[in-house]
Amino acid sequence: MNYLQKLLFITLLLSSTIAFGQLTEDPDDRRDQGKDPLRTQTPEGRPLPFGQRLRFGGGINGFRFGNPFSLGVSPVIAYQATERMLVGIGGNYTYTRYKPGLLYANQGVTINQYGFRGFLMYEFIPSILPNLYLHGELQTNTYQQKIDQVAGAYTGTIAAPLVGITYMQPISRRFGVNLTALYNLNYKPNDPISYQVYGGTPFVLRLSFF
């Protein structure tokens, strides 16, 4: 291929790329028109590819300071199923430490939790309060409880359905800051395992980014 043929090929390639870009305008370009970006389609009505509907992120959860001390992390993958609905999966790890005297007189307790969750978020009143989602999820936790000065550890699994709301502050079409408040329908205040794993409260507050 001589120099002229190479130049012609590159020109055609660039022209095709520019034409394709104009044909499939990025939904974020709607901001220039004073409109919110579309989440599942281009402004011309074409469905966005699967990869452009995915959101990746994570956050922190279970944060409590004092007695007990607790802190967790939770990576997330979410998919924009419709303009108003997100579905996703995530994992989580939470560390909880009870100082001596709260559960046992002279012994502290350490709990490590590893979990998985599937969730669904639905923007239910976008015309009145946009970016407010009903939030439902099913969470399972495998936990390991270790009591100070006691050999061995107790391990088990507990599952919980959670319901509540999430408010998302969009940063871009595929990323936002989310504040979530959920209620644990499986919380049992008189069950010591439920009490220890969920920190003595049926409410779950979570800050996440995706």
From TrEMBL:
Basic and acidic residues compositional bias, start-end: 28-38
Signal peptide positions on this chain: 1-21
Chain segments carrying region Disordered: 24-49
Keywords for the protein's UniProt record, in alphabetical order: Signal
Protein name: Outer membrane protein beta-barrel domain-containing protein
Lineage, top ranks: Bacteria, Pseudomonadati, Bacteroidota, Cytophagia, Cytophagales
Keyword Signal: yes
